[in-house]
Each structure stands twice: as C-alpha cells, then as structure tokens.
Design goal:
The protein has about 100 residues and is of the alpha+beta class. It has three helices and five strands, in the order αββαβββα. It comes from Dipteronia sinensis.
Length: about 100
C-alpha cells in the first residue's frame, strides 16, 4: 500500500518527492518523503541550518524514522523531509542524506 500512498501524495501535492528502495527479499529497505508544501516553504525562507535526527520506531515493523527540520522566520520548527530505515547506521544515513 505504501507505493500507492506515495503515488497519491505526488499526484495531489505537486512538488512532493518520494522514493522507495527495496532489498533482495522485496522488503522495504528505505523510504523517503518530502512534501511539496514543505519544499516550497523551504525555498521561500531558507535558513542556514538544517537539523537532522532519528528516532526508533517500536511498532511491529521496527526501524527508525529519519527527519530533517529547520526553523522558520518565527522560530517555529518546520519539517522538511522524512525517511524510514531498517536501523540507524552509516548506510541508512548516507542513503537518506543523498536523497535530501
């Protein structure tokens, strides 16, 4: 269902960028999503610093949620991109930051 969700996001929110990478067993290895509205907001008010972080997911599928955010002109946290990976490791971060 995730490819369908990503397709619908790209169709309804122009400028949205998504990417799914699978491993050899056809399981999702990495997922990346940047909503078009967030990208446009970032282009309109670019700040010099983007923060990155990850949090471990406790659901049945486990893994980690990788996030980039920045502060807008009102000092409010503004999301930019989201990614999902199997673990927080150099390979996951490298893939995520290359998508960014």
């Amino acid at each position: 269902m995730l490819p369908t969700l990503f397709y619908m996001l790209e169709q309804s929110d122009h400028g949205t960028v998504t990417k799914i990478e699978t491993n050899s067993e056809i399981w999702f290895a990495y997922r990346f999503m940047a909503l078009g509205a967030c990208i446009e907001g970032f282009k309109a008010i670019i700040r010099q610093v983007i923060s990155i972080d990850a949090t471990h997911l406790k659901a049945k599928t486990r893994g980690v949620l990788l996030v980039t955010v920045w502060k807008d002109g009102n000092e409010m946290i503004y999301p930019l991109t989201f990614g999902f990976a199997h673990s927080e490791c150099t390979e996951s971060w490298t893939w995520f930051l290359n998508q960014l």
